[in-house]
Amino acid sequence: MNTSVPFVEMRGIVKQFPGVLANDRIDLDIYRGEIHALLGENGAGKSTLMNILYGLYRADAGEIRIDGKVVHFDGPNAAIRHGIGMVHQHFMLVEPFTVAENIILGNEPHKGIRLDRRQAIAKVEELSEKYNLHVDPHARIADISVGMQQRVEILKALYRGAELLILDEPTAVLTPQEADELIVTMRQLVAAGKSIIFITHKLKEVLRSCDKVTVIRRGKKIATLPTADASLNELATLMVGRDVELTVSKTAASPGQPVLQVENLHALDNRGLPALRGITFNVRAGEIVAIAGVEGNGQTELVDCIAGLRQATEGKIKISEQEVTNLTPRQVQEAGVAHIPQDRQKRGLVLNFTVAENMVMRSYFRPPFSSGLTMNQGLAEGYAKNLVAKYDIRTPSVQTLARSLSGGNQQKIIVAREIDQNPDLLIAAQPTRGLDVGAIEFIHKELLQQRDAGKAILLVSLELDEIMALADRILVMYEGKIVGELSGEEATEEKIGLLMVGERGKGGETVAN
Amino acid sequence: MPTEQERPTLWDKLRAFWRNTDWESNLIVPLAAIAFGLLAGSIFVLSIGKSPLAVYKAVLDTIFGSKRSFLDVIGQATPLVFTGLAVAFAFRTGMFNIGAEGQFTMGMLVAGIAGIKLHWLPGPLLTLVCLVAGTLAGGLWAAIPGWLKAKRGVHEVINSIMMNYIALYLTNTLVLSKWLREPGYQATFEVPRKALIPNFMGTTANWGIILAVLAVVVVYYLLWRTKLGYEIRATGYSPTAAEYAGINVPNRLLGALVISGLLAGLGGAVYTLGVKRRVFQLFGFTGIGLDGVAVSLIGRNHPAGVILAALLYGVLYRGSASIQLSTGVPKQVVGIIQACIIFFIAADEIVRFLLKRFSRKGEAA
């Protein structure tokens, strides 16, 4: 193995999209046996660059060399033949198929025209043994956890002979524990001589798991440096191009009267199975209460119940002493609740509406925007212009479709709209999911400001960092119940993490209910 | 809260409109699709050994050949404006109202019945009553699948296709019944002359075109200048976001389908009063509701686009008769050309691709 010549060299890669120079003469060297982080904000050009390397896009200029030889990829199959594998953020697995079937798909061992199942399973077992990636070849994809599915994706790439694995935001879908396991897996793979490109915008992960990091900003390569020499703040500054406060400073809360009171709440999920099994808690004015938990433990259903988007089967919800159980979303809103929904593209915005139309989504029916049957578009646009300026939303105009804005700016529309309702209770469900550090900083500051203005804030998040940075009280949900409550000061990542996976009461004092 | 903004002048508004309109998807691609459709249609004409140029010349003659033929184009387009609008309106809420056919038929039938049975009413009032009755009949015919969709989640396509058949056979049953049938005719009695919508020079074109244009304006206003329109569009683009915004989604789905049915029903009433004068036995679907789907599609589900697309269809309808006479090409070829145009409109990515190819070749040359 020659370690002086990089396995992959990308030289002067240029890719122009209409109106955007996505990649501007980017160089990137990947050596064998290294984990190389590709760090940048959303829309910086990371994915474009990797799609070029994986043969999905063709570069307008520049060249790719593998083991020193220039190659041209006309599609992913060519890239795969040269030992490049990619695990996309959204998995490409066939759900009703088994693990083994998914891994061999596209390159099936066969006897004549018949699929050789026994050999397929043997091959999968051999691979999983070799790289210490344990899977059950017979399990169906639909039945295994997300972390396990990711492992199947990695095995699929290895089965096709990948020497270099491109992992696109691999930890976004994982629990903290699963993310730790993934990092161990990555270490084992590079120890066996593979290389890994790790696309991310999470700084901590870069420092924790990678050997080298290349920072990309607005289509340009800013720097490549060993992570041993880098600090969090340095990386953040390189990535955003200005100094960023990674953890917003926060004073002690001075909570007032309870605004939200939830009593013994029960509800079903979309499949009709119990999702909430007796939830009781309250949120007081002037405090941020965070709900922590692994995705799918009832957080979504809880928020939907409070917001009037899902029927409770039992229990009570009160806003400022007014009962709102099973009222319509409009009635809940009128009772003083604003809601930043977890799925901004499905719930929070109508993507094919303009910025202005989205800005009045929760107030269009009131004067001055509506009078009688008619609606005044001009006023809506004026109102939207003010909020766009106030919240520094980057959009060409208020007539631009929400679809064409970046995730961060889309989220800012929702935050601006909901805060401007001047609510008593603000529900923020995963308010920074998929956003970059600049936008996260902005949204965290807004939430704290709202708290200090005396609003009650219910924060639901899968990011422990976010919870630790903002919450005055932390409730941990597990299988539809609140299994623990911690104050902001006593909480540590480890304590929350244990409660999240249902390890009740380790540490004794943390169990409530 | 909104502050006093400088009132934009008309000029500013026009400029903003020009800038904010996606001309490529709304104008260039549809026009190119029509051109490609005509081109592809030529291949079929060539395959039967005739000259496509002669065919297209014959089609052009139908527009500019004589006043009467030009008026006939307008007359053919008028009912399509109504059904096209009906389908486009439903598309805006994310629903596929293929039931426009049945709603149109019911409009035709009920307007005819009202005209025949209420013949004692004074002229203008009788016209109005016929129009309203036909409109409501269309609305009712859409309300049934609309209600099933909103409250029971039953897909509107299945139900409205069944409603189309019910409308067809109900019409034939009533038309041929003693109650309505004029002896010796496969049709009802004539609607009294005083109730008819006057036509132009004895052609199919009639004053109903005014109602059609009015309907276009009303639909435009409804969609983009009213609260209901905002809610309907939000529901169409994203029912989940609409629900979050506090919109009663099932209610709006029902409402939109009913409005769609009213439009188709009005179209049917205008067709009876302005063109047919009585309700004939049907030997199959009128096709006007079904072609409304194509008109809506070609018109990009926009009220203004619907007018242009309906005119295109008017030309092709009228042209199909004259090409057979003047060139000997069977009129079914026009059906093939229509299909080619719809193919390219529906496959707009192919058109974009072809356009890119052509423009790149242009650069190279």
What does this structure look like?
The complex is a heterodimer of chains A (513) and B (365). Chain A is an alpha/beta fold. In chain A, the strands form six sheets. In chain A, strands 6-9-10-3-11-12 form a six-stranded mixed β-sheet, with helices on both faces. A six-stranded mixed β-sheet of chain A has the order 18-21-22-15-23-24, with helices on both faces. Chain A is globular, with a radius of gyration of 25 Å. The model of chain A is unreliable at 505-513 (pLDDT under 50). By secondary structure, chain B is mainly α. Helix content of chain B is 75%, strand content 0%. Chain B is built from 15 helices and no strands. The relative contact order of chain B is 0.19. Classes of the chains: A alpha/beta (513), B mainly alpha (365). The interface between A and B is medium-sized, with 38 and 27 residues.
List the helices and strands and how they pair.
The complex is a heterodimer of chains A (about 525) and B (about 375).
Chain A (H helix, E strand, L loop, with lengths): L7 E10 L2 E11 L4 E5 L6 H8 L7 E6 L2 E3 L4 H6 L2 E4 L11 H6 L5 E2 L2 E2 L1 H14 L15 H14 L4 E5 L7 H16 L3 E6 L2 H7 L2 E6 L2 E7 L5 H9 L17 E11 L5 E11 L3 E5 L6 H9 L4 E8 L2 E2 L5 H6 L2 E4 L3 H5 L6 H5 L10 E2 L2 E2 L1 H14 L16 H13 L5 E5 L7 H16 L3 E5 L3 H7 L2 E6 L2 E7 L5 H8 L13
Parallel strand pairs in A: 3-10, 3-11, 6-9, 9-10, 15-22, 15-23, 18-21, 21-22
Antiparallel strand pairs in A: 1-2, 1-4, 4-5, 7-8, 11-12, 13-14, 13-16, 16-17, 19-20, 23-24
Helix pairs in contact in A: 14-15
Chain B lengths: L9 H11 L2 H25 L4 H13 L2 H26 L7 H18 L5 H30 L3 H20 L32 H18 L1 H11 L1 H6 L4 H28 L11 H11 L4 H25 L4 H15 L1 H17 L1
Helix pairs in contact in B: 2-14, 2-15, 3-4, 3-13, 4-8, 4-11, 4-12, 4-13, 5-6, 5-7, 5-11, 5-12, 6-7, 6-11, 8-9, 8-13, 9-11, 12-13, 13-14
